[in-house]
Amino acid sequence: MSTRSKVWWIVGSILIIVYCLFPIAWIVSLSFKAPSDISNGQFLPTDPSWGNYSTILTGAASDLFLPALRNSFGICLIATFISCILSMFAAYAIARLDFPGKKLILGTALAVAIFPVISIVTPLFNLWRQIGLYDTWPGLIIPYLSLTLPISIWTMSAFFREIPWEMEQAAQVDGATTWQAFRKVIVPLAAPGVFTTAIIAFFIAWNDFAYGISLTSTDASRPVPAALGLFTGASQFEDPTGAIAAAAVIVTIPVVVLVLLFQRRIVAGLTNGAVKG
Amino acid sequence: MASIEMKNIVKQYGDGYPAVNDVSLDIADGEFMILVGPSGCGKSTLLRMIVGLEDITSGDMVIGGKRVNDLAPRERNLSMVFQNYALYPHMTVYENIAFPLRLSKTPDDEVRRRVTEASDVLELKEHLERKPANLSGGQRQRVAMGRAIVRQAEAFLFDEPLSNLDAKLRGQMRTEIARLQRRLGITTVYVTHDQTEAMTLGDRVCVLRKGSIQQVASPRELYEQPVNLFVAGFIGSPPMNFLPATLEGDRLQTPFGPVVLDERRAAAVRGRGELLLVGIRPEYFEDATLVDEAKRPLGSVFRARVDVTEWLGDSQYAYIPYEAPEAVTTQLRALSRELDSEELRTQAIVSIDATSRIREGREAEFWLDSRKVHVFDPQTGENLTRDAEAGARLTQMATEDRVEQVQDAQASGQTVSGATTGGGQGSGAHRAGAV
Asked: What is the pLDDT of residues B101-143, one digit of tens each?
């Protein structure tokens, strides 16, 4: 690469990074502004303070925010876990076995994924009230599975297809049952795929607003995105902008931590050396 | 340690295409059997049916006296080396080799003992803690073999194990495999498309074509007494030359002059049609000026123009073009396509002494040893002059040699290791490996 094109690449990259990170920087800046400072017309707060954070963590809004944070974590982790296990088996079957209706399953999964969420919220709301799932954890976990499973099955089956057939056959010849071959050879090899899938599934569930606001009514199960929408200012003349910004920063942290944590596991190429090289 | 018997094995795929068609083959206990043939001949399918990775459409697969058609691979107790090694990338070399033992719940100290033994035999000792990704091709190959020899399997199966190695390493590993098999004395089935491996490794070689067996014999018999055009063309490098010929009395008229046949062969050929194919191996030719006076009368001399010569240091090849009738050319072209080669012109490849001064583009005088030529029926491909008795004698000799070698190898192994009692032959051989 010549120096000239290198410079252009750097300039381009910086532009894109600034473009992507600017809203986030803005939210961070907002979260440090006092209510009177919010519309000061400047990017940086004139007098940075932790006031907004103390409001949501210990102050007036903490009753709304902290249970919501707990709900969000619990519901999203359970949904991700179930979705990973189910999609692992489904993807294995799709990648390895020849059975009638394989295309149908993949097609249906895709159809579910592109189905607009908002159109099933109302029927679900009525159904959940009838059968007592309204405002409960399972009441959100089940719809979250419908959101995360299709994408999980698709990503995971792509990963499984990458694993050479011989791995499994070798294990069988070595004396493994189908289950042992799956557990001891295929799953470890698919681990990067499983982590990638888990992160994607977690984000999808974590970011959901439509189900969260419609299928819950109390602290019992309301997730963070819904709770953010219910924040109120100190008086009716005041917007809760600062508190919402602070909460948004806090809910972004687990996502960032997750990505940093698993970044190294998501490196493809773990199968290097399995077969001839 | 077991024999493998196949009785009328058929493999038919969903579309009705028979990949393996009515194959019956007996592999004796401790024998090294090679399955060889051009791509698509069904050799790998047959191997995978032995190990159980492929269903058998019909026929019986009997291993060690037990019919195994319906047994899963893990219940057959065979070990296999795959073409691409199929090492487990997330395990160390040690765990890779130990994997079959772990599955059979072998106690830890036993696992350590056996893995150490296997890694000693294969000189993998200093690599035990590494991951397969950090090994060279030859080392990976050895790890795959370690995984195969670490447990007492009934038989070893190899599926083109050397085809991913470079030529030099392939030669070394080839001798290594031969030594290992002799030492352990375990029944081995080895699939390859490389006829050098087939000739050097096998006690017996089974040549397959389009799913059916052409000939099962020792490498020597295959070379000297092939049953048909296919086997004759497949075995030998450079391949056998096929020249069109017509019979006149007891001599064959060929593009390279008359070839005199002895009484037995002349009788066999007589009355088998106008046009025949005579098969002559490159080394039956020689530069006429370099032939012993004593040998000269045993063959015929002809003059021909040399197209190209290849000097290889220890030997030299000359290419001599010849004219052939249309029918023969198309037949030979079809044969060469089937043998995975692309022979476009009708030319004879002739091996001459490396010191010969024959040069390209010149006419030269060649001598042809007519004692060993074979005559084939161009329609059926059948070898009309095959001496079945002589062939059987060659294979018999090879079998006797093998028994002797196995006994020698095992006896010497046992004295060196000092282990003389216990177990079957297999465990004795394993201990021998520990030296």
From this structure: 999 999 999 999 999 999 988 888 999 999 998 898 889 989 9
A169/B137 Cβ within 8 A: no
| In contact, B365 and B352? CB cutoff 8 Å | no
DSSP state of B159: E
A98 in contact with B, Cβ within 8 Å: no
Which residues in A lie closer than 8 A to residue B72 (C-beta atoms)? Answer: 172, 177
Percent helix, strand and coil across chain B, each to the nearest 5: 35, 25, 35
* pLDDT tier for residue A244 given thresholds of 50, 70 and 90: confident
Fold of B4-221+398-433: Rossmann fold (3.40.50)
- ipTM comes to 0.78
A127 close contact with B: CB closer than 8 A: no
pTM of the shown model: 0.78
Is A247 domain-assigned? no
Nearest to A270 among B51, B90, B99 (CB): B90
Whether A275 shows a pLDDT value over 60: the answer reads no
Contacts of A16 (CB under 8 A, 6+ apart): none
Contacts of B80 in chain A (CB under 8 A): 170, 173
Sort out which chain A residues have CB atoms less than 8 A from B137's CB and list them: 276-277
Give the amino acid at B106.
Answer: T
Distance from CA of A181 to the nearest CA of B (A): 10
- Model pLDDT, residue B424: 38
| Min Cα–Cα distance to chain B from A102, Å | 18
Residue B433's pLDDT is: 37
Q: Which of B51, B89, B133 sits opposite A173 (nearest CB)?
A: B51
Q: Identify the pLDDT of residue B171.
A: 87
Buried b (16+ CB within 10 A) or exposed e, A132-146: ebbbbbebbbbbbbb
Chain B residues in contact with A176 by the CB 8 A cut-off are 74, 103
Nearest C-alpha in A relative to B134 = A273
Residue found under tokens 């692309």: B342
Put simply, whether A183 touches B (Cβ < 8 Å) is no
pLDDT for residue B264: 86
Q: Is residue A192 part of a domain?
A: yes
A167–chain B Cβ distance below 8 A for any pair: yes
Instruction: Give yes or no for a contact between A228 and A248, defined as CB atoms under 8 angstroms apart.
Output: yes
Query: Residue B207 pairs with which residues in a beta bridge?
Result: B36, B215
Question: What is the reported pLDDT for B374?
Answer: 92
Whole-number pLDDT of residue A265: 63
For residue A88, tell me if it sits in a domain. Answer: yes
Asked if B89 lies within 8 A of A166 by C-beta distance, the reply is no
Is there a contact between A272 and B104 if contact means CB atoms under 8 Å apart?
Answer: no
Q: Which domain holds residue A106?
A: 63-230
Q: Is the pLDDT of residue B415 over 70?
A: no
CATH number of the CATH domain containing A83: 1.10.3720.10
Chain B neighbors of A164, CB-CB under 8 A: 84, 86
Number of domains into which chain A is organized? 1
Q: Is the pLDDT of residue B430 over 70?
A: no
Separation in Å, CA B225 to CA B36, B167, B385: 17, 29, 9
Domain-embedded: residue A191: yes
Distance from B421 to chain A by nearest Cα, in Å? 28
Do B84 and A170 make contact, defined as CB atoms within 8 angstroms? no
CA distance B104 to B151: 10
Beta-carbon contacts of B389 under 8 Å, excluding residues fewer than 6 positions away, are none
- Delimit the domains of chain B by residue range: 4-221+398-433, 238-384
